[in-house]
Amino acid sequence: MKKKVAASLLLTVALSSTLLGSSFASSPSYKVSRSGSSTSYDGQVVSGRVLIPVKAIQSFNGIKMNWNSTNKQLKLQKGDSTVLLTAGKSVAIVNNKSVSLDVPVTIINGRTLVPIRFVSEALNYNVELNSLTKLITISDRANSVLTENYKSDNLAISRIAALQFPIHNSGLPMLTADDEGLNTTYYFPEGKSDRYFIQTADLVYYYEIKSGQAKLMWEANLDTTKKSASKDITQLFGYQIDKQYGSAPQLSKRYVFFNVDLFTHMVQYGFANSDGQMSVLGSQQSSAQVIQNKNFVREIDEEQPIGS
Q1: Which residues form the signal peptide (predicted)?
Q2: CA–CA distance from 134 to each of 14, 30, 52 (Å)?
Q3: CA nearest neighbour of 261 among 184, 192, 191
Q4: Where are the chain's structural domains?
Q5: pLDDT tens digits, residue range 3-51?
Q6: Which alpha helices (H) appear in the chain, and where do they start and end?
Q7: Which residues pair with 78 in a beta bridge?
Q8: Which backbone phi and psi does 100 adopt, to 5 degrees?
Q9: Is 186:163 a contact under the CB 8 Å cutoff?
Q10: Mean pLDDT of the 208-228 span
């Protein structure tokens, strides 16, 4: 049975006419880019939906694409997701299930165009539209394995998955460190895995897990020549803020921290109070590969569990 695509799967653009043939060139256009890439492609509105050339899909990481010119079928694969589209047909096959389309694959002036939001979300990408700049940004989301691990009741497994989620910078500028960072400290609120801080050198980043991504919500440059003197977020990190972007979160009462020495690969872990007082519970020798994969996170016996 054919399943109607939810309205959220298709990018609605307010248009009053169907844009085909010669009108295609003059219809409103959008720029489509991959998050973190400087390359963009022209997206075009057809019947109120944004379509992009097939060649743009080829630039997505991990995509396998096959075009059958005989039956005009496009097959897209990413991990365990498969999408089969046929030019001129308003039905797609997603993981062996029929799904209705508002706009089919369209061939105009020799170019094959596909609906960007439908294809992206079917292949587990996140889609964001800035209606003012007419920019559509495509970014990675966590795969099914990471998503299941993140749901685990085991805090260590859930936190490792959270640290492995694709990062989305949320449009915040890229800060650069004034000091060389030989240590990186990760802070999770006690009993939680859905948000965390990363402090390295004089930089602090705050992320929240949303829509299959670790979204950067706040970042700051610390002034390491000035000790924190206020009862605010600076107490946790010990120094005053030189500059910051985004919205600083409310502090939790206590955090679990993992301090990673990037030179010796030694990991210390323990508790950090919101006033900056830290108590080390233990340490463990790690390796470069373990640190890279964030597998240094461990369970803390004294910690309260999720949901408490």
Answers
A1: 1-25
A2: 13, 5, 14
A3: 184
A4: 7-140, 144-292
A5: 333 333 333 332 222 333 333 344 457 888 887 776 788 888 888 888 8
A6: 54-58, 116-122, 144-150, 155-164, 234-237, 288-292
A7: 81
A8: -75, 145
A9: yes
A10: 93
Bigger pLDDT: 308 vs 177: 177
Give the type of residue at 132: L
Burial class (CB in 10 A: 0-12, 13-18, 19+), 253: exposed
**Other CB atoms within 10 A of residue 51 CB:** 30
Confidence check: pLDDT of 108 > 60? yes
CATH number listed for the domain at residues 7-140: 3.30.457.10
And the tokens for 154? Answer: 């085991």
CB 45 within 8 A of CB 30: yes
Which residues, in sequence order, are CB contacts of 70 under 8 Å at separation 6+?
A: none
Task: DSSP letter for 270, please.
Answer: E
Amino acid found at 131: S
Residues composing the chain: 308
For the stretch 67-85, what's the b/e string if a residue is b when 16 or more beta carbons lie within 10 angstroms of its beta carbon?
eeeeeebbebebeeebbbb
> Among positive and negative, which fits the CA dihedral 172, 173, 174, 180?
negative
CA distance 236 to 190: 14
The DSSP result for 204-234, as a single string, is EEEEEEETTEEEEEEEEEEEEEEE--SSSTH
Residue pair 207/198 in contact (Cβ under 8 Å)? The answer is yes
Distance of CA 2 to the CA centre of its chain: 30
Residue partners of 164: CB distance under 8 A and separation at least 6? 142, 146, 293, 294
Backbone torsions φ then ψ of 109, nearest 5 degrees: 50, 40
Q: Which residue has the tokens 């061939």?
A: 107
Residue 277 half-sphere exposure toward CB, CA atoms < 13 A: 5
Cα separation of 136 and 134, whole Å?
Answer: 7
Whole-model pTM?
0.81
